[in-house]
TrEMBL record:
Gene3D superfamilies: Zn-dependent exopeptidases (3.40.630.40). Pfam families: Amidase_3. This is Germination-specific N-acetylmuramoyl-L-alanine amidase protein. GO terms for cellular component: outer membrane-bounded periplasmic space. InterPro entries: MurNAc-LAA_cat (IPR002508), N-acetylmuramoyl_amidase_3 (IPR050695). The keyword Transcription regulation does not apply. One of its GO terms (biological process) is peptidoglycan catabolic process.
Length: 227
């Protein structure tokens, strides 16, 4: 009996060491990458809201913070446009939205980020629409690669969206950031069911994890481009 226990302890120790080696290898594999996360809105700008008053700015930030944790767990350096409830405006009342956007873009442009991800929520007057969707600027083929990788993993992980990654060359942050990137609309706050889901931490973590898987898939696809 003592011999069996000794063998079991030895096997568990080996498995533990293998897991440590696997984690170390993953961290080493991705530790040269830098990702900039933009939690949309913030401060004076609440963004869209659910019928019960949950604000987009808070939900965007929650998902971004979960995503940061996932990325850092494999050694990726993460930069945050914001990690608290602030805006980046330095303009007048009339120009504060544009000022906020330009400051976000400036931070991304001047960074050493390999990739940026902007997190948002959707809302329409009608409550019938639902589903997360990833948008990209079609001027750079890598934008399409990252958007499609994220969208595929959103579909596979959440299992509640039929949408595909979509080109959008007019979204301000995608048009002017001059970095590879994508904008994720995590769902519709105007849809009562999805609005409730997006307020739940467990669902926010699932959304963040799907985006994380898409980022990892993208980096794996483009390894030679970054080596």
């Amino acid at each position: 009996m003592k011999k069996i226990v000794t063998i079991l302890i030895l096997l568990l120790s080996i498995l533990f060491l293998l897991d440590l080696n696997k984690d170390a290898a993953a961290e080493q594999r991705y530790n040269n990458y830098v990702v900039y996360l933009d939690a949309g809105h913030g401060g004076y700008d609440g963004g869209a809201s659910t019928r019960d008053g949950a604000q987009e700015k808070d939900l965007n930030l929650a998902i971004s913070l979960y995503l940061r944790n996932y990325l850092e767990s494999v050694g990726i350096k993460v930069l945050m446009i914001r990690d608290t409830d602030i805006s980046l405006t330095d303009g007048s009342e009339r120009t504060k939205k544009r000022s906020d956007m330009m400051n976000r873009i400036k931070l991304i442009r001047e960074s050493d980020a390999d990739l940026f991800i902007s997190i948002h929520m959707n809302a329409f007057p009608s409550g019938r629409w639902y589903g997360s969707q990833t948008f990209y600027n079609s001027q750079d083929p890598n934008n399409k690669l990252i958007a499609e990788a994220i969208q595929k993993n959103l579909k596979d992980t959440l299992k509640n969206t039929y949408r595909n990654a979509k080109p959008s060359n007019n979204l301000f942050i995608l048009k002017y950031s001059e970095k590879v990137g994508a904008l994720v609309e995590a769902g519709f706050l105007s849809n009562s069911r999805e609005g409730r889901l997006l307020q739940k931490p467990i669902y926010q973590q699932k959304v963040a994890y799907a985006i994380f898987l898409g980022i990892i898939e993208y980096f794996d696809q483009t390894t030679n481009s970054y080596s």
